[in-house]
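Reply to dn_fold:

You asked what the input looked like. This is it:
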Amino acid sequence: MVGFTPQKEIVYNGLLPYSHRLDREATELLAEIKANLSRAVLVKELWPGVAFWSRKLFSFLKLYGRRFSKEDHILFIKLLYELVTLPNLEANMMQSYARLLIQLLKKKELLSRDDLQLPWRPLYDLYERVVYSKTEHLGLIWFPKYFPASSTKEMLDEWRPLLCVFDVVMQKAISNMELFLPTIMPPEEHSQAFHDCLPDVVSQHLVNLFARLANDNIGYVDWTPYIPTSRLMRLLQRLPASVVRRVHRERHADPCWITLVPERQRLTDDDLQEFTRSLIGAALLAMFSKTGSTDAAYALQNLALLTPELAIPPVLEKTYAAMETLTEPHTLTATLTCMIGMARSLVSPNNHYPEGRAHVLPLLMGSLPGVDPNDFSKCMITFQFITTFTTLVPLADCSSAPSRHGDLTEIENDLCFASAQFEDFVLQFLDRCFALIDSSTLEQTRDEMETDTQTHLESLVELGLSSTLALQKVYNFATSNIFETCVSGRMVADMCRAAAKAYALACNLLEHTLRSLSLIYPTEYRSTSGGFDTDLPIRDWGRAGDVAALGVHWHVPGKEEENFVFQLLSRLLHPELQRIEGHVSGDQPMSSTAFLELEACCPLWMDHTYLTYDSRENYRESICQTMRLLLHHILEHSEDDTKSLFVIIKIISDLMFFRGTHKKEFDSRWKSFTLVKKSMENRLHGKKQHIRALLIDRVLLQHEMRKLVVEGSEYKVVHQELLCNLLLLSTSTYSQVRSRAQNVLTAALGTYSFSYRDLIPRIVRLLSPQHTNGTQQQFKGALYCLLAVYSSASLASARDWDCVGEVWPALVRCGLSPTMTLEEPSIGRLLDDITDRIHRQHDTIGIYFTITEGCVEVANQIIQSENPTPCLEVPSIEELKEGLQRQRIRNVVSARKYEKLVNDLLDCLEDKDLPWKFEHMATDLLSLQLRDDHPLPPDAVLYFTQSLIHDSISIRKVAISAVAGILKQLKRPRKKVAMKPSDISEEMMIHAASEKPKDDLSYEEMSEGEKIIFEYFSDAEFIDQLIEFLSLEDRKGKDSFNPRRFCLFKEGRDPRKLHWLFELLMESPLSGEGGSFRDASLLYVLQGGLAQQQWRVSELLHRLLAYLEPKLTQVYKNVRERIGSVLTYIFMIDVALPNTHPTSSPHVAEFVTRVLERLKPLTSEPEIHNHVHEENTQETDERTQAVKLLKTVLKWLMASAGRTFTTPVQQQLQLLPLLFKIAPVEIDESYDEMKQDARTCLSLMSQGLLYPEHIPLVLAALEEMASSRSWHARFSVLTYLQIMVFYNLFTLLSVPAEVIRIRKLVMQLLLDEQLEMTVKKTLSEFRRTHHDNWQEHRQSFTDDQLLVLTDLLVSPCYYA
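and this is what came back:
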């Protein structure tokens, strides 16, 4: 094509046999898309114009790739970006535009940031509006590479103030940075980009952001100051794949605008070998893990691409060993799975591992025993293994090649001689397959009267009945004689069954014959385009096909084949159509054989785009007309002939969808192709380095996709008629017929745009109460059509005001239909399913559509562009004015349709005869009409307000949610003034009472909706009844906090508004007047309020702590637990951050210091016993009070372990000796709360993160307890130490002096006089882990040592 260089075409189009026609086809379609898409924007027609032509552009990308100029590419992106960020765009449309925009942006190498820059603010505003309003996520991660360099500073200025660890809003800031911060940029822009954000935010866990930053800027960021120097945990599956992508980028990727990796930072072969050595051990272990070998196979596949000489040999060794083992089939399955992924690296000529190809024959021969009928999983993986290798390796005998080729290497000579074994392998493989088939035969069980002779007779009949003469003779014999039923009757029945089966097989053969004659397909899938006679096949092992010279041989139907096809149709199909028409007219009976021939001829109904048939008969149209006549005839005269109806449904399906392939077949083959490509592709070299057979398969898939997309979605009159026929079948008498027809109908509605508009009026008529002569089957069928079980979208939730306006009221009014009965459980369930699906799929349908000036500007550029020139002229000024006027009219009409839908549902609710189920349905549907861009009509506000005190609890629940939304909708915007927190005094921020707003409305100034709310909520009787209903238990004993009700009354978190509530809750929560339950409950309520305030009420936290401290010696367990939990929230934000002032809330260190002072009576005791029980309430001595205090402190330590933002402070660690003194105390079997709590605290504290300065303090406590007189205490020290080291390994390794202390402590305890101090456990673990090679390991011990081991580890015999 002349005039421009395409951005990136689909190379497979150039390999199609009709590729010479595609240039013109693509140019015309692109000109049409450019013209109509831009024109739809200019005349302000978002729906259906822009929506329809944007889908056309999406199809263009599937068919032709980015076959447009760079200028058009940029304009399309800018237009879609403007469309995505339109204000008030409905969610479904936004998602559709976003999906197309992502496709346009995917190939980042095609457009540099100099070519395209997009403003980040509109996208961020959209993200705020969509994500934080709980609308579906649109996948906006593709955009950051095109934000200007200056956007980094703007974003950080926006989000830095949100980086507060004490507020949930920090998570929002992190998410924003992860999605939006640009990371792809040249080195000269780094100073104004990510270098600004690293010092501020690198301490946060922004893993995804930094992974993207590191990948996009290899060699330009020094990460040393920001990460610990200790070893990083390697992700086995992803890490090798990431290295492969990096090496591809450094060595094999085509140059583009993206900054190159600096030469000094590129990975060398030595780096790759070191990388493989570090991972290969873990990968080999993971091969046999319980989670399966898939992750290991993926890792090994990538390691084999990087360093085959290191990755392949150990896997080969394990594979050979697994092939020789009969008792461990799982090891064979695992090793074969890994070898499949490494096969391409093994067989390809490779300078690093040339001997790999010598293993192909031994592996194939060794895998043959895996074809085992007794082990299905092993059999399937063996077939996959053999298929993979035989696809990569031509099975050709090259043993004579050394005598003809003098340039062979030693390895090639060996391979040539070894290839003589291929014949033996094939023969043995076939023998295995035949044995598998023999052992898998299903023997039919017959009655005693039936003999083996009859089975033989059937087979003879099947062989003999190959001519119409034989068939006619059987027919004459069977119809002209009378047979007894036990023997001769059964034999004749078998003959007839065999005859019908033979006829079906003949029709099946006819179908495949017609397919092979009339379709376009490749005729070979060889691994090389040349023949094996001239080439040396061993040099083709694993060779990649050359896309530029693939040499595909195609079957393209010629004139002779075309004539033969029409002869077959004239001879076989035409007479059958005439017989069917004769049967319909009553002239002659009809047999089912006509249907079989019709089914067989399916492939010929396709429109041959690249074959012309002049004036020959259009059989597709003829069959449509005949089927329509036959369908009405059967439904009228013999509706119980369900088999014929099944065939008619199949024929209609083929008429509508068959274009050389079925959509399901295509999807299945595309998925299979993707899996095979993934297992065989060479991601290191890229550039479509696939084997030739795989490339040919991809070209065929491209051809089939073209047939489905180009020809399969144009909606014609014939399709409209077929849809009506399907609806007739979908509402017929028999359920199986209805079900099959509904599936085809659903598929058709998903294929043909806007076809649902023709069906919905017909479906609504079937549900109407006026449809008095309908049947219950028709009623159920119509409901199922609306539900569309197997579709992603249902007619009941169509995003179209006209359709929703018809369907929703019809669903409610169908409750008045004479054919509707709730006594039929299936109808009730069906209605529930429809309502549930509407709730799950309903998106707010747009009312007000506007096109921004930015959209108009880009559309003008598109319509005035060239190469190709759009096929329509620029709209005139009059057309633009008319378009603007139509947009205004559409918006007004949409608003009226919305209000009409609401009023229609309200009219249904006023009908007193409406059954309760449909009243609930109408209320549900009405609640979905709340929206933020248009007020709910006053009548609906009145209905929901009145329904707050409805008799039905389900309607009350819906009304509570709806009224909460109405109140939000009616809330008038308040003026907001930005100010710094430092400008507001702390006292005012916490305590100032909220003043009454000065702009309270008078009754006359209220809207209709506001007046309704005001009147009802001012009515004392209404309020009393509402409170009475709200006080009722929904489920006895199971009620909990109800967010629906909370939304109806909620206030903001501003403590200045809620100060009265906090003051009320602070009034003596631990008075003890109502018992322990009341005290614990009051504290719980107070805790909930304080938790929501987070950092805002530090003064209240100080007051509460001062109130609680004297009461920490509580006797009752539930109160102690609640106090512990409250203390956790009091100290929640006591976090020391670098470069910040201390927080104003209470500090843990000061509190623990005071607690330790009160616990002094217990510090001198070697062991602490719990002698305080709940009945002992009178003891007031210091020790008793200290034990009570310690119990509460334990509850606090347990509660805070999993909830606080930081690790234990130094003062908390001072409690360790006390905990060790409690936990090991040996008491009777009865439950001891303090002992259990102490053990839990030790467990939790040992798992906590330690700072380097904490380690000496902990070790000092452990060393003190290691000298304890109690060996139980010493044993507890070891348990604590083991867990602490495991959780803080890297921190400990950075402090060598402390490592020495730990080693010394462990050795001290190993020498303990008490044998249980780990020596028995250690030796037992050693014996267990060395069991497999014990005969070898035992040589390292003396006889005396072995005797000690035996005495220690082997239990004495009872009979000794």
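The chain has a mean pLDDT of 80.
Hope that clears it up.
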